[in-house]
Amino acid sequence: MAMDKSRTQVILERDKEHLLHGAVALDQFTDKGSFILNEAHGTRVKDIHGNEYLDATSGAVSVNVGYGREEMARVAMEQMLKHSYCPAYGGYASEASIELAHRLAGMTPPGLNRFFFTNGGGEAVDSAIKIARFHWIRKGKKDKLKIISRQNAYHGTNIGSMSATGIPAAWGNFGPLAQGFTHIPAPHCYRCPVGKEYPDCDTECAKALAEAIEKEGKDTVAAFIAEPVYGVGGCIPPPPEYFPEIRKICTEYDVLFIDDEVMTGFGRTGKMFAAEHWDVKPDLITLSKGINSSALPLGAVAIDEAVFEAMHGPESFFHLYTCGSHPVVCAVASKNLDILVAENLVENAANMGAYLLDRLKEVEDLPHVGEVRGLGLMTGVEIVSNKETKEPFPRAAGVATKLLVAAREQGLLARGFFNAYMLTPPLIVTKDEVDEMMDVTKRVLSEFKPE
User: How far is residue 233 from each of residues 5, 167, 209, 266, 328, measured CA to CA in Å?
Assistant: First the structure.
């Protein structure tokens, strides 16, 4: 239900007076205020005024099992009454965190049986970087500290994860990046970084990793980190040869491969983990979002036994979070995984993702649509100013913002980034709901005027 007018106005004013919002221009925010949501069930959300929307964003591409799952709420209450907190360091652990780790070990690729829990994806990435460095130092290779990632990649906004992120807009006004990070070109065939056409490109975007390792010095590189499918950067899947070549290069140069599945993990792409699409086994996996559908803050690093064994020794792995492995959060995550499996949501993501991508192809002939792409329930549309030259609109044109506002006015929440319009609905989405979001999407893209 919508709040009464006076209460609504109070909330709007308090928001402006007290909250610091991320990823918004603060002068614009002060003028316009927030888009405040205060109710959500299944795939639908309501704003503070009582307007309802079909959520094709899954919140932050994270509410995989949908909003308002009563069974998860009950588990949270029961766990809080039984055991509401336990440290996760200095030899302490809770039953709930141990059980979640055991459950995850049955889902992750063989050998990735150890887990370190954090409060979110950015912390998981920072933790994976520190685990990789600690691993090599324990093996006597104290110079293997550098991290290679990719241009246009998103890995978080903490100092370490921000330095791995390859989006310059995420760096601005925060000072220098952390030392020891470098970025290689993105595997985006529509905008090939070496100016070639797939498949006659010899996967040079992957071979750029070997070149970067050689340039930096193979005895100085600890790890390579990559999203299986670009998330924030536009829902861009790689060519099929890409990750097998990446795995080969990492093995050849003795570099750990960190698979950043924060957004893609737990069924988003139609596989439990996106790396399964290419039969590639990483050394570390970063996890969050779908692990508990963001009902509570949680992230994790899955660690291969070979990496874990090399970490053994008299030195403490002095890395911790006060609320890492929080028993309430871990118990809710276990219930989330129960739902994921019981309702066959990974399979549904594969089926509905294929249907959504097929429907999106209906907009390919529109004058400003350059590319339609996706994998599972991660789909994107590239908007261009010139279809023949693939020239993008300048960032100042605010293309994504205009499209998202237009969709919202018609009852649909979509995602956007620069020149990309994205649909990433919850894994519970139905065929009728896909049709509903496509009705709005077709109107919005057909009516789009760049002026």
Answer: 38, 8, 19, 20, 32
CA distance 133 to 160: 12
pLDDT tens, position by position, 419-439? 999 999 999 999 999 999 999
- Percent helix / strand / coil, the chain, rounded to 5: 40, 20, 40
pLDDT digits (tens, 9 = 90+) for 387-419: 999 999 999 899 999 999 999 999 999 999 999
Q: What CATH number is given for 35-65+344-447 in this structure?
A: 3.90.1150.10
List, by residue range, all CATH 3.40.640.10 domains of the chain: 70-342
> Mind listing the pLDDT tens digit for each residue in 74-104?
999 999 999 999 999 999 999 999 999 999 9
Q: Report the topology of domain 70-342.
A: Aspartate Aminotransferase; domain 2 (3.40.640)
Straight-line distance from the first to the last Cα atom of the chain, in angstroms, rounded to the nearest whole number: 37
Question: Start-end ranges of CATH 3.90.1150.10 in the chain?
Answer: 35-65+344-447
* Number of residues that make up the chain: 451
Q: Is the pLDDT of residue 154 over 90?
A: yes
Bond preceding residue 199 cis, omega within 30 of 0? yes
d(CA 30, CA 15): 10
Of the candidates 167, 147, 169, 165, which has an alpha carbon nearest to the alpha carbon of residue 156? 165
